[in-house]
Amino acid sequence: MNILAYIVWLDDTVGQQNRKSKAVLSIFLPGEAMFMKVHVISTYVPAKCGIAEYASDLVKALENIGVKVNVIAVDQGVEHLTYPSNVSYVIKRDSERDYIEAAEYVNSEDADVVLVQHEYGIFGGRWGCHLLRFMEKVDAPLVTTLHTVIPPLDDFMDEVTQRILELSNVTTVMSRGSLRVLHECYDIDGCDVRIVPHGVRFIQTEGKDYIKAKLGISNRFVMSTIGFLSSNKGIEYAIMALPKIKRYVSNILYLIVGTVHPKQKQTHGDSYYERLANLAEDLKVKDQVLFINTFPEKENYVRYIVASDVIVLPYTNEMQVSSGFLAHALSYGKAIVSTPFVHAKDLLSNGRGLLCKFKDPDSVADAVIKLAGDPDLRAEIEAKALRYGLRFKWENVAEVLLRIFMEASLRREKTYVIPAYAQKSQRIY
């Protein structure tokens, strides 16, 4: 009987060094291989949350390549939710005991790897410190995806973040900028940190003209911002840019798609949305703004992107290190105008988009006017964006994560099947 072995090369990026590491991931006898069992801890659909949507797409992509995935949902207590069948355990966000019991549950299930989707605000305790109770008690190797990487705002945040890095067998971030922040602000000596970009689900939709016609916005030059409405999105600065834009682009329309985030709505209601609507009226650009006050399902989310001539991200947080909206817009080949937050500076370099200044309506206006008045430039940027964005397909991201899981699991002396189409490694970032 032949013994089969797969050897996979991984691109490791730690600090400022690149190295190649070789790992024998699987040695097994035919018929004796097992599929990997991964537990994912995250917020999860149907929660209206960017991390929940991300986790849902990630789980589907992993399942498509043969990984068995169970989800531990961190319930925020904002909505009454009925979770899908792949959610095997639910943690109440603010119950420290729930995190300990969830770890005991994962240990009883003999998970091969636990994948943590980390964002400070989704876990209970100061700076999400309840998550540490879970991570400290879990027996399985931990792979942690950091969705937010910022310099510590106080000593306790520093301690929590440092402990997460120490407990993780592998930490993944979504951009080179995130890695730079970790390297400059935290002690990552001895930590295994990799760049794994934000995944994008490619959905076949109707063409731009057809979607515009269905929305009743044919013959309009559409700039759009899509996602939850909150003050750090800087949408007011794009609205303030409209008086100048409409002097040069008479058919301009600013499409704003999204609702106020449920957590913000709990404390502030719809005040931000109302402020934006009032601003448009005060500036006499009400006819140049179309609000679609809904949380779009993925198919409609993509349709709104496809219908856009220019995507605008006037975000105000310079340290934002990941943006699903940015990744999707790039992957669908859109001309993008963005403030230079960390993720945007990485993704839009080399002519893949235009950067504007923070909180500067004139700068936003100048970039949009430039793209509207120069179709050749717009087409060139769109082509570069599309070529670069194809690497973010969830299939590619899932295969890279699978190799990371297997490498993290080597010490457990188990054997796993690598799907045939995942055997050939590829650089995706």
Write out key terms for the chains shown.
globular, disordered N terminus, 20% strand, Rossmann fold, alpha/beta, 39% helix, 2 domains, 15 strands, 429 residues, 6-stranded parallel beta sheet
Structure description:
By secondary structure, the chain is an alpha/beta fold. The protein has two domains: 4-199 and 393-411, Rossmann fold; 208-390, Glycogen Phosphorylase B (Rossmann fold). The protein contains 15 helices and 15 strands. It has helices spanning 50-64, 96-108, 130-137, 155-167, 176-185, 208-215, 235-248, 262-268, 271-282, 298-306, 324-331, 342-347, 361-373, 375-389, 394-408, and strands spanning 4-14, 17-28, 37-42, 68-75, 87-92, 113-118, 142-146, 170-173, 193-195, 221-226, 252-257, 289-292, 310-313, 335-338, 354-355. The strands form three sheets. Strands 5-4-3-6-7-8-9 form a seven-stranded parallel β-sheet, with helices on both faces. Helix 12 (342-347) links the parallel strand 14 and strand 15. Helix 1 crosses helix 15, helix 2 packs parallel to helix 3 (130-137) and helix 11 crosses helix 14. 46% of the residues are buried.
The CATH class assignment of the largest domain is Alpha Beta
The main sheet comes to:
7 strands, parallel
Strand content is 15-25%
Kindly provide the radius of gyration, computed on alpha-carbon positions and rounded to a whole number of angstroms.
22 Å
CATH hierarchy: architecture of the largest domain: 3-Layer(aba) Sandwich
Biggest sheet, spatial arrangement of strands? 5-4-3-6-7-8-9
Uncertain segments: 1-34, 421-429
SSE-based structural type: alpha/beta
- Helix amount: 25-40%
Number of strands: 15
- Compressed to H and E, one letter per element, the order equals EEEHEEHEHEHEHEHEHEHHEHEHEHEHHH
User: What value does the average pLDDT take?
Assistant: 88
CATH fold name of the largest domain, please? Rossmann fold
Question: Overall 3D geometry?
Answer: globular
Number of domains: 2
